[in-house]
């Protein structure tokens, strides 16, 4: 259903001649995406994913595609973009920007256990380190500036208690962003949307992170918070599952030790991660772009998570023994 721009095998056969991938043999639309049009394609050389970008522009895309290439070249498991004969990663198809990337094996693990969380934590730390010297800087487009612009837009739709929650949390996060602790946090390119549906596993073996189209430069700890808030919770309640939290954080810490400033910032950052997705879900729910957003994600899920992260004690980022 989410094939917004149809592509036939004939279209692909012409277009693919600019790549060193042999003849196109098959093309199959992927129904699950909500942002872009994705296809599995088969050529004489193997299987790939073709993405037509429905919302991102030719100017914004180099950051994402070059970041994926940078990471893939450094052994981080991500789809590797394929360049055409001229070396271009982004090429027009039916007038829209499009790219081919390698296909990851496996499927998403929607019922993760500690072993999966540990694998994600370790790969996330490797990704942060590998991306540190990536030369292109593009901010997190869902960062604090976006949150300050978006909060007033959704405010009229909220109940009194949610208005209060949003107002107080925005004040808290704006103050936190001005703090010395915040200034000490390490930052660089982050995935920023590393949910269960954006990671592939073959059994217990992680085969890759994908869907980098919310990536941007922000604190590494924000990426960890977003990831923990999705992978290490009971989905019904949003309550953190301590075994999975420890597995993910300890695995990350083993590869890239957390700092004392990050420890101090951990609870505010879990709140920031919840706030970011509460806001985007509220926005999509009350102001749907068009028929593309078939079933908007439930904002109530992240409202619950935000309230819990405010009210409940947070497990430490690391222990001195860890
Ligand atoms: N590189 C890839 N390898 C394997 N499958 C992929 C790859 N990229 C996308 N997919 C498949 O396509 C689906 C939709 O991709 P996604 O990037 O999440 O789309 P959207 O950003 O539009 O939501 C994924 O759930 C996954 O099954
Ligand atoms: N992870 C976000 C929505 C982004 O969708 P994706 O399929 O592109 O990852 C959320 O759950 O709100």
From TrEMBL:
This protein's record includes keyword Cell cycle: no
Keyword Nucleotide-binding among UniProt keywords: yes
GO terms for MF: homoserine kinase activity
Matches recorded under InterPro entries: Aminoglycoside_PTrfase, Homoserine_kinase_II, Kinase-like_dom_sf, Pseudomonas-type_ThrB
Reactions performed catalytically: L-homoserine + ATP = O-phospho-L-homoserine + ADP + H(+)
Any Pfam family: APH
Enzyme class, broadest EC rank: transferase
Keyword annotations from UniProtKB, A to Z: Amino-acid biosynthesis, ATP-binding, Kinase, Nucleotide-binding, Threonine biosynthesis, Transferase
Pathway entry: Amino-acid biosynthesis; L-threonine biosynthesis; L-threonine from L-aspartate: step 4/5
Domain Aminoglycoside phosphotransferase: 27-241
HAMAP family in UniProt: Homoser_kinase_2
Family: Belongs to the pseudomonas-type ThrB family.
This protein's name: Homoserine kinase
Upper taxonomic lineage: Bacteria, Pseudomonadati, Pseudomonadota, Betaproteobacteria, Burkholderiales
